[in-house]
Design goal:
2 copies of one chain form a homodimer. The first copy, chain A, has about 350 residues and is α/β, with parallel strands linked by helices. Helix content of chain A is about 40%, strand content about 10%. In chain A, strands 5-6-7-8-9 form a 5-stranded mixed beta sheet, sandwiched between helices. The first copy, chain A, has a 4-stranded parallel beta sheet with strand order 2-1-3-4, with helices on both faces. In chain A, strand 1, helix 5 and strand 2 form a beta-alpha-beta unit. The structure holds a DNA duplex (30 and 30 nucleotides).
Chain lengths: ~350, ~350
DNA sequence: ACCGGAAATGTTTGCGTTCACATTATGACG
DNA sequence: CGTCATAATGTGAACGCAAACATTTCCGGT
């Protein structure tokens, strides 16, 4: 790898390709892969007809198509995506920006997006951004995806500064984020406030006087959205919102929060912003001999596969992650193809009742 | 979407593009995006020089490079990946095939691969395959990735039939699987037998007479590799291997297995093939009033974030998922660039001692 | 048999880049 | 100060495909 001209650093990072590594000799005419020209010759038709058959155009006689496909097999032809992109101006590729923290939700959303994209004939390329990155990392990732030809981009990282970080980029490349309030042209994929509302109301409905809250990583917009909604519900119902106990999505942070809660004598109900944190919370409570749900009820968010196998099994608000991914991908594709959205309904979270909540004692 | 010629179904699925959806008008000369020609004109150099600057070739005078980059900014030039691919014959893209089940390991490995690829200047495209798919789904995914220009492919699905399903494909496109025994040209990324060995020996060393085993989904080669090694260790140490209790990686299957184990009076130690299943096992044991690790020790595999927050905290054999992803990506890239492997060492699993194992009573 | 319109196919051109090779500038050395 | 090697730049062509447009074939209605 030879890099030249460090002085260029100050210029558009969006353009420079840093990975020069020697020339690649052009293949000689003999060992070149067969092209549509070869197929056309073998089938006795024009290259255009070959192109039409390959890309599924109508108006080709079945018999001709059959001949062409036979020729394809005979010469071992393989479609060349790059050439097609160059000629057509289309790549049928969407980019996904994800934060590089391994989590169930990450893979579920990505899988959903990939599936939906594949069904629509699109390919997904990914770019990851280190956790807690600043705006620059996001613009870099965006630029990388754009340079690879993404016709649209899904940002699976609802961070507050996204809209300003991306700036005018979102005008030339359709972009979808998690949330409407990102201001990047997408409808809300899932109503985070509804999640917090369902969780908080569930605890209040059970008879708890108030509900404590372990929040997620402040880096994520979900965290503040849920916190705000939780607070709003409490005020609405005449309860006093206790101070927020900060978390960062990790089980370890949940554990720390759990120790805090265990030390609060009159705490009887907690709304924890993720299942993983809830595991930590419950373990801390357990170690402090505070029974769940006997003394303290816990409701969380996500409904990961393990939620049902916590002790006690977690009552949680399910997020349809895969659907979120599907919806995001479908929405960008609609934007790319300038179609009307099939659905503008936000996805519905769902309260899954299990064993970690109960009415307060007495 | 118009589809024609169903009769073509029988021909190479590897070639046909099913997603014709009307023509896309070619953009007129005015609103066409600026190309290297425009930059060259603005900078007063040849397009070749522009190309050299953009792609980081050496042998360009710094002053010239600066002029070119200024022109790039001035005209708003953006590099066109497809055109470059066509001209150079290289796409700098690797494909990843993954099984569409959302799991921690999936995202961790993928993130690792994406990170390593990005560092080497490669882009990652993904194709998912439904869980429990037959060979056809894998070849389809492989073909999809190839048609998009993947220069190499990472298969994150160590299924037994991979080698035969992929057939000669792996000769033209460098392919890396999880395991050496895939026979698809990759070194073992992680030694599954070592995992089983560490887990089993740990329990035996604690003094247990024998070790029961809850296996993973038979679809995955890991399952049988671990089962074989577990059995081998037992025989080696003069213990009698009890019958395998089948699981499928899910917590629910672990729970079922746990109920089975709870009914076996003399079972004192279990090697569970994944942390998620271990949660299910432990819960079933707990419900059956069988103490862990008091009566029954449990050791599992993965060391997911939640492992430390199970009750009791899971003793488990950690798999370095992200490193696996990195190694896989680096290995394909080495194959693509025909370089010698930087390292052929398989990744080392690691036994993480926590609270779910103990010596047998008495 | 003739006509007209649609279906089927062919011809030409251009997409934006990099390669191979050609040429010109630069600088080290005798 | 001329001579080379080497660095720096330029020229022309090719990459494989689809768009646009041109042409031919087909077929139903008269």
């Amino acid at each position: 790898m030879t890099h030249s001209c460090r002085t260029l650093r100050s210029f558009s990072r969006a353009v420079v390709n840093a990975h020069y590594d020697g020339r690649m000799p052009r293949r000689s005419a003999e060992d070149r892969a067969p092209s549509q020209v070869d197929v056309a010759r073998a089938a006795g038709v024009s290259t255009q007809t070959v192109s039409r058959v390959i890309s599924g155009h109508p108006n080709v006689r079945p018999e001709t198509a059959r001949r062409v496909m036979a020729a394809v097999d005979a010469v071992g032809y393989r479609w060349h995506a790059a050439a097609a992109s160059l000629a057509s101006g289309r790549t049928r590729t969407i980019g996904v920006i994800l934060v590089s923290t391994a989590r169930y939700s990450t893979s579920a959303i990505l899988l959903g997006a990939e599936g939906a994209a594949a069904e629509a004939g699109y390919t997904v390329i990914t770019a990851s951004v280190p956790q807690h990155s600043g705006p620059a990392a996001f613009t870099d990732a965006f630029d990388r995806l754009e340079r690879q030809g993404s016709e649209g981009i899904v940002v699976l990282a609802p961070v507050g500064f996204l809209a300003e970080a991306l700036g005018s980029r979102v005008e030339r490349t359709p972009t979808v984020g998690h949330r409407q309030s990102d201001g990047i042209g997408a409808d809300a994929l899932i109503d985070q406030r509804a999640i917090a509302r369902m969780a908080t109301e569930h605890l209040l409905d059970l008879g708890h006087r108030t509900v404590w809250h372990v929040s997620g990583d402040e880096f994520w917009q979900e965290s503040s959205a849920r916190r705000d909604a939780w607070e709003a519900v409490l005020l609405e119902r005449g309860a006093t919102p206790p101070p927020v106990i900060p978390g960062d999505w990790s089980p370890a942070s949940g554990y720390r929060a759990g120790r805090t809660i265990a030390a609060i004598p009159d705490a009887t109900a907690v709304f924890v912003s993720s299942d993983e944190m809830a595991f930590g919370v419950i373990r801390a409570l357990h170690e402090a001999r505070r029974a769940v749900p006997g003394e303290i009820s816990v409701v969380s968010v996500d409904d990961i596969a393990l939620a049902a196998y916590a002790t006690p099994a977690l009552t949680t608000v399910r997020q349809p992650f895969e659907e979120v991914g599907r919806a995001a991908a479908m929405r960008v594709i609609e934007l790319i193809e300038q179609r009307e959205p099939v659905s503008v309904e936000p996805l519905r979270p769902e309260l899954v009742l299990r064993a970690s909540t109960a009415p307060p004692k007495g």
